[in-house]
Amino acid sequence: MRAVLDRIDRHLTKLLSDDGRDGVNDLAERLGLSPPTVRARLKSLIERNLLKIVGVLNISERPELVCAMVGIRANGHGRLNEIAKKISELPYVASVSLVTGRYDIIAEVLFEGDMDELYRVTSELLPGLEEPGVIRSSETFVVMKSHNKWLSLPKGVWDDEIGRDDLAADPGRE
User: What is the pTM of this model?
Assistant: First the structure.
């Protein structure tokens, strides 16, 4: 069963959605609560996996990133949630949802550059996730243009870490 947030937690999460950089003291002042109360509520929300404070990227302003929606039909036999969880762990997968309608599962995929990574996800990784016949079919929709689309980068996108040598070579970075 999904957790229902009380009025204070909803207001707290709304403030953080507007600007995740706000500090506990500022949030406490805006909520009319003490900083220790806000800190405890934040800790509880994070520990219960109801809130995650992260940087998100405006995908609609990043021409080097390509987003696609993949509609998946599966013979889940009561295991659709398990299959969706496995899909969510694949590289380049930003989110996975069980849905009603023509598809059983919708996955949002984000990658950089050409279609090689999308091909890898849809033609190699996805079919190899389960025994043959479980993933019946998939249909891919490449997002041509989006508005107000903010995402955290999934694993696989820009995973090559910048080392100290790279930072030293670019004096504009800290």
Answer: 0.77
